[in-house]
Write a structure and sequence with these properties.
mainly alpha; 4 helices
Length: 93
């Protein structure tokens, strides 16, 4: 195979790879936007709920809405998030 043909083959392969990468990048961008939109809808639903909602992992609060904080007598959710879920539900004092 001559040098010119090898270069042309490599160029074609690079063009194909570039097209594939562009498609994957577009797909990733779309997926990221869908995830951000979904997270925004979820957050809006949770934050706007009149029901008290706490999300935790291993009894460590990750998120609590204002309604949950009010139910347990906290003025701010930040104060509530400093405690474990158990400390909120069963205070030691």
């Amino acid at each position: 195979m001559e040098m010119g043909q090898q270069i042309q083959d490599q160029l074609n392969e690079l063009k194909t790879l570039n097209t594939t990468l562009a498609q994957k990048n577009e797909s990733l961008t779309t997926t990221e936007k869908e995830l951000r939109d979904s997270e925004a809808r979820f957050r809006g639903l949770i934050e706007g709920s009149i029901q008290g909602i706490l999300i935790h992992r291993n009894f460590i609060p990750l998120f609590a809405n204002d309604a949950y904080a009010r139910i347990f007598g906290f003025a701010r959710t930040d104060d509530l998030l400093k405690l474990t879920s158990l400390e909120v539900l069963m205070p030691l004092d």
